[in-house]
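All the exercises in this workshop are built on plain-text protein records. A learned vocabulary of local backbone shapes supplies the integers on the structure line. Once this layout is familiar, the rest of the handout is easier to follow. An example says more than a description, so a record of this kind follows:
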Amino acid sequence: MGFFDKFFSKDKKEDLDKGLEKTKEGFFGKLNRAVAGKSTVDSDVLDELENVLISSDVGLETTVKIIERIEERVSKDKYLNTKELNNLLRDEIVSLLAENNTEDLGGYEVPEVKKPYVLLVIGVNGVGKTTTIGKLAYQYKQQGMKVVLGAADTFRAAAVDQLKIWADRVGCDFYTKGMNADPAAVAFETTQYAIDNQCDIAIIDTAGRLHNKVNLMQELGKIHRSIDKKHPGAPHDVLLVLDASTGQNAQEQAKHFTEVAPITCLALTKLDGTAKGGVAISISDQFKIPIRYIGVGESIDKLQIFNKKAFVETLFGGRELG
């Protein structure tokens, strides 16, 4: 039984392959141009490789780390050829991803906690936060779980309406106090609703505004405390949603939010629409926060569990340089 046979259905594998298609084409196109006419990996090839990684949104710090590791290998084997660079690069990226806290989960698993499991979702407007919540609710519903969505993004009427549409589409419960309600009160009462109605999962949306750090910290802190007051130990996870198509801007957002909130996991959306999938490697390396979900398409079932082995196998699978 192969790796993908064990963890992925044929459809899931095809979705991931299609979702990373633009990233693969851009990355390997640049890499092939970098080694054109070269037979061995020398300083010029490494310089070109550095440029390729940076331009593929792997990020400067992570790129330097990868180049230094490859330089060590090259120094041991003076005649390392460019054909071997592909496997060497793959090995180093797998190694980097293995160093963070990402676990290769087999499915949409929920921690063993006293029900309900409470997931707080944060991120700026436009990254696909509400869509990610809806797709997650769908996956949990498919497993027979009772889910409630809480609309704590009360600053935009559209946010409440969009979440309600997703709740109706998925067929799960929905809790709102309408626009301009206190977000912490919505979070508290959503948790209360989940307890009273024996929900397995409560997913709580929050405002996507990037206002100043002090206000953001205070607001998220208040929401966090209100949930914990009603259900000690919750929220059990704080999920930050990032738009992969924004490249290094997604990394800047991650930096901003990790400074003000106890992020426990990440979701990268819109991978299928961008050649900037390399940002997954950068974010994983820089923040050591597990990437748990990736968006590889618009339809309701196109949110996948992030599996680092599958990600790298798909990125490099069947590709040779030269």
In short: Confidence is low (pLDDT under 50) at residues 1-6.
